[in-house]
Amino acid sequence: MTKKATVLLGMSGGVDSSVSLVLLLEQGYDVTCVFMKNWDDEGDEFCTQADDYLDVVRVCDQLGVKYYTVNFEKEYKDRVFSYFLEEYQRGRTPNPDVMCNTEIKFKAFLDFAMKMNCDYIAMGHYARTKTIDGRTYLLKGADPNKDQSYFLSRVTEEALAKTLFPVGALDKRDVRAIAEANHLATARKKDSTGICFIGERNFNAFLDQFLFTKPGDIYSYEGEKLGRHSGLMHYTIGQRKGIGLGGMGNGEPFFVQWKDLKHNRLIVAQGIDHPALYIKETWVSDPFWITATPTFPLQCAVKIRYRAKDEEATVEQVGEKLKVTFNHPLKGVTPGQIMVFYDKDICLGSGIID
């Protein structure tokens, strides 16, 4: 009798990981589920971890699968939350979800699985992998509206080779249909949005618990003093809402154009077509290539943030950094955010926008 391949599935309590469990069982894997506890939620009314864990229990009990909780709070605080705060302290806008995948789900969790002698780990991400000539490539998820390859763009090839993405080839509506057909407790559960440890709470108030906020002046790009800001870390490049300048000037909306940390000034530009909001090139630090370092100059598609359209660009290596020149000027290129590089459906890797 052939021994079943063993899989450790990361269960979030959502419909995607629940359906991943159904599919893995149908494919004949020996599956054990793990709920990762990454945040100390004691006394935290906004954290949904307790409810999410109960949904994991319901689904696993229904399908007759063993489950565990593994505590990665220390790893998360040291590797993800500290990075999150440091970037905001520098006036940048980080993406902790990318770092969580890199450091927790596909490093700490993978290490845990290998110590348990599992053959694979599995996740409910909308992404795919493909093996070509013995190398593992990361591909976009089949559903373009749910593709999560952006968040996996700094995961190593070695980790991806040991990972299964059961829902990566499906549309979200098909995932919901499978959940309904199997009467899963999570079939109609709303998708989670936002940063896991923020939840539904006020984002600025959360930041103010950990970082010193210094109000300052708002200036137009042309040099006119317009008002006051509540602290530069509360704003991001390209932001429109929440600036507090409605009705001024010609009545068009203002957008954050830059954050002048030296003088603690928020620089804004009025009108979506203001030329100062658009840039033709930018620098990217800490480049990471998943399968192989490409040949430069590289002609590829780039994504400057999750949900942004793919944009054509030329990437050149200059020392340890990358110079990225867009085919068309782009708005909202934000320091601290992840820029991801694509060759059609293949995710090549990423870097951090400077």
Automatic annotation (TrEMBL):
The record marks H125, Q337 as: Interaction with tRNA. It comes from the Bacteria. Residues 283-353 form the tRNA-specific 2-thiouridylase MnmA-like C-terminal domain. Residues 146-148, 305-306 are annotated as: Interaction with tRNA. The keyword Oxidoreductase does not apply. It catalyses: S-sulfanyl-L-cysteinyl-[protein] + uridine(34) in tRNA + AH2 + ATP = 2-thiouridine(34) in tRNA + L-cysteinyl-[protein] + A + AMP + diphosphate + H(+). NCBIfam families: PRK00143.1, trmU. This is tRNA-specific 2-thiouridylase MnmA.
